[in-house]
Amino acid sequence: MRGAIFDADGTLFDSMAMWDNLAAQYLKKQGIQPAINLKETLATQSLDEGLSYLIETYQLNQSRHQLATELHQMMEAFYQHDVQLKPGVKDLLSDLKEQGVAMCIATASDRSLIEQALNRCGIQSYFSAIVTEEMVGASKQSSLIYREALTYLKTTKQDTWVFEDALHAIKTATADGFKVIGVFDASEARQTEVKQLATKYITSFEAWEVRQDKELFSH
User: Fewer CB within 10 Å of terminal CB in the chain, N or C?
Assistant: First the structure.
């Protein structure tokens, strides 16, 4: 391993529960009781579709732009004041840095949110770049984001590992020839598939002796 590409939410940060429940929390702040299956309903929709669904279903007075802004402000407050690293992340990053591994982030989230999370948790210095889906103009259904990350790391697919928690992203990276470390997160229900597809599967960074992992550092 000479390079490492990290997903942010669900991999570095224990933040997926906030994303999964954001709409429900917003509605409750408005004094509205959300449907029990709201999370599952929104999971099948694009951002614009989800905003329209919330406005129409719950008879909100906001425009889609206003609603998106208010939801973004909630996430900003979370990343500035509450977001936590997954256990063992800081030690892992320190170990990789000592091994001379170049690191960057590839994320679906807004760059500003991830910058706030990195600063809050004190790990911004480990990463040479933050590559976002917005920057490359494609979601993680495409490998463009990982290929763009290589240009910052100055490494190749053969010596770069991708750290991801979401099955769709793991599928994309492995199909494009990257070695992938599947990271357990409770928000991803398909853990059996993650474990089968990933090159390596990690249930906890705390229990992983990365320096001793010959699969990563043997030549």
Answer: C
